[in-house]
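Quick one: structure for this chain?
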Amino acid sequence: MLTRSPIKLALLATATVAISLTAGCGGRGKVKDTAFVARDVDTLYRAAKDKLDNGDTKVAAALFDEVERQHPYSPWARRAQLMSAFSYYVAKDYTKSTQAAQRFLEIHPGNRDAPYAYYLIGLNYYEQISDVSRDQKNTKLAQDALTEVTRRYPNTRYAADARLKLDLVADHLAGKEMTIGRAYERQGKWLAAQLRFRNVIERYQTTSHAPEALFRMVETNLVLGIPEEAQKAAAVLGRNYPGSEWYDKAYQLMQKHAPGISAS
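Got it. Here's what it folds into:
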């Protein structure tokens, strides 16, 4: 399972947006139930904000949706769209949060809050990243969405957090490749294993899995009877990770199975 940065980091950014969107809404009002009867926009928006403040995030999201439905041409509708996306995110309904954020971007692509909408989409996929033993569709979607944030808005605080999360996403994807590669090794499928380890070396060389991937290249090349290729991988491992356990293991393997070829 991916080690994620604390949820407080995400909420720090979301809270900033929430404050800016709700400033000037006035005091809290009370709603007796969730029946979405016609109400003036100020009352309806205030009711949604009250629910959000009280932690009733699903009802808050539905009420923000009502603001947009009942008052589509009001300035409050734009605010409500993003607040709906935020409320769904806090409620962990990531699909609806993404849909709300995407709808906001479709209608208001140049809005000043567009960076946050893109960032929220990335967060929704990021929160759904699964263990490396499972399908990594959401991991790749998170990578694409967070990359879009850094590409479009490189100097924002959202991009700064997206870069941190992208490092963790890359490490997770590398971990998936390593898991598959090791499984192929256990089955004696050496070439298939090498393909996975090479992916890590070429695509995720800055992750924590790179040293082991290089060692596995040494290991599989020796099994395949290609000591010269094993030596190349060992040399790269020695130059970049000279004090690592994986270099020590590679050195020992080379001494045992290819004593005439230096591992450095």
